[in-house]
Amino acid sequence: MTFLSGLLHNRLQRVICVILLTAGLTWLYLWWRILDHTVSAYFQAGGFWLGLLLFLSGMVPGRDGSRKAGRLEFMAGALLMLLWLFLAFVYGITTADDKFQAAHAEVRDAKMEQIDIKHIPSVPKTFAKYKGDKMLGQVPNFSYYQMGDYSIQKIDNELVWVAPVEYNGFFKSLSAKTVTAYVKISAEDENAPAELMSGYAMKYVPSGYFSGNIYRHIRADYPSAVLFEASFEPKDDGSPVYVVPYGHYESTVTYRTSTGYSS
Q1: Which residues of 148-186 are buried (b: 16+ CB within 10 A; e: fewer)?
Q2: Torsions phi, psi of 42, nearest 5?
Q3: pLDDT, tens only, 20-42
Q4: Which of 103, 194, 216, 235 has the fewest CB atoms within 10 Å around its CB?
């Protein structure tokens, strides 16, 4: 009760608590959503709420019942909320020309490269998925897993459909601990059988939780990077690899992409 009473009457103590509370909750939100830990990300996630709390704090009367002493908090909170609203809804419109100029494009009059008729994807995704999903039953403890998204990759000079095995929920991931297989189906020959590529131990995957999540694992090494969607790209020797492109903002309207992170 003494602490709460102090917060009501001690403005400096109350402001410090508001700032620390907002910063802590914002950090927790960014950690949970696996977002970049940059100044802009912190302000975008917590700036409005910090302004609102300061605004409300400034309306609390002092010991003498006067609200004059809280004008600074009141005005600071109002300015923070207005700035957040401006950046969220207005600023993007004012930088439209800069965004247009940032997208450099060049038109060339050139012949298209000839298509190799030996490597034309003729197997539709639906058929590949039908064949691949049936392979899940051959995975040890298959009830722990489910099939991931199918994508076309070029492995050992052949176009194939590949789909990683993913965890089938939080509790199943605790029992499974690692992902052990993926499915490969020819995208060029519809008569070729589906292959279960097993015997692996993938610890960091998109369907993982906490430290086993590939995005959270990368975020620990690149806290300020902008992470893009992971793609499953096995190597020519068959070993499974997730590639996660990432980038860094150079200004408010452009970002610089970097080499993908493999796991």
Answers
A1: bebeebebeebbbbbbbbbbbeeeebeebeebbbbbbbb
A2: -65, -45
A3: 999 999 999 999 999 998 888 99
A4: 103
Would you say residue 152 lies in a domain? yes
Whether this model's pTM surpasses 0.85: no
Which one has a higher pLDDT value, 69 or 70?
70
Both 54 and 92 in one domain: the answer is: yes
Domain boundary among 51, 85, 101: 101
Angle between helices 2-9 and 11-33 in degrees, nearest 10: 100
How many CA atoms does the CB half-sphere of 151 hold within 13 Å?
Answer: 13
Pair 38, 130 in one domain: no
- Residue 153 in contact with residue 239, Cβ under 8 Å? no
Do 135 and 228 fall within a single domain?
A: yes
Same domain, 160 and 77: no
Q: Counting beta carbons within 10 angstroms of the beta carbon of residue 53, is it exposed (0 to 12), middle (13 to 18) or buried (19 or more)?
A: buried
- Regarding whether 161 and 39 lie in a shared domain, the answer is no
Would you say residue 119 has pLDDT above 80?
no
Calculate what percentage of the chain has a pLDDT beyond 70: 79
Q: Containing domain of residue 130, as a range?
A: 125-262
